[in-house]
Amino acid sequence: MADNISIIKLNEVDSTNRYARDEASTLWREAGTGKIIAITAKHQTAGRGQLGNIWQSQAGNNLLLTLLVRPGQSLKVTEQFKLSQTVAVALHSTMKRYGIDTRLKWPNDIYVGNRKLAGILIELDYSGNFVEQAIIGVGLNVNQVQFPTMDRTPVSMKMLKNNDFDIEDILCNVLKDFEMYYNDLSDEHHTIASEYSSLLLGHCKENRFTDADGAFTAIIEGVDSYGRIILRTDDGSIRKYTFKEVEMLL
Q: How far, in Å, are 111, 128, 147 from residue 248 at the CA level?
């Protein structure tokens, strides 16, 4: 593993994101500046997803990971969605290593077809016009094959490829791919936005959506710098939505 990644491995914790938040000062003091801190656990008793949702995972069967980073002046508050794009594209890159072709469901879920393979939860702390610290939670379904009933049909790597995977090997590749994309975050020529858009589930195709006014058909044009999805409706008009203002109907 790269020298600038510090890894903390836990057997059980309520939430790796919560652990990262509570222990951040100690972790940074021990790791030093300019590092990426990775926290993993075999089991979470209170894993969290977007908007307070619960992330349920069988002990020892999945990758439960939190990445703690300090972008500082490499990431402006107005460009914070670049971090979501970076994590999502890095996970897509890792899955390609295992022969799994994923798509990114806006804003930051990882899908295969219409089934959810991984979720991302990012918490940000700001300092002036910049992102001082980011706590990035990743839940990736690896060897689990039975899931509770939920509103998004889940899938795992094992279900897709019909074999067990080494979670430590997956962790190594996730960190390698994340580090590669993250190190380019401040590069003005960074193409992460276009790469992210090209991988969006339903990109440049007609899809059904629903918003506060009801269902409609539109084409996904991409995502703007604020993370809003850009939709072109049947009449040619452009609509932009923030997270949870619109839902794609799979």
A: 13, 34, 23
